[in-house]
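Quick start: what a row looks like.
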Amino acid sequence: MNFICAPDLFRYCYDNANTDVSYAMAHVSVKGGIIGTYNYGLYGRVCGYLFKPLSNVSTLKGVFHTNYNITPYAWPYGNESGLMFAPELLSYNKALKSIPELFRGINIPANV
């Protein structure tokens, strides 16, 4: 399965409370010719350890804001519900205090 970006995207960012990665992957989906479809932009699922290098960052604002092409981390199987994001996505961010608009405007498929 493809990730939406390199898993080490934030590897070389400063890891302190003032590091700003606001809207890093926001507004990258573009509507295509068919009404309601988005055929341009970043596609894929979000890596579970994407934010690991940012363990001391206090705010993750709008990183995925209106990115309509994010696919679920795990699709539904049988009677099980799927997962839109990995359970460990924010577990490495011990100093995290605020996530305004982090997931605002994304499409979540049924049964996920």
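That is the whole record. The CA atoms of residues 49 and 71 lie 16 Å apart. The longest strand covers residues 38-40.
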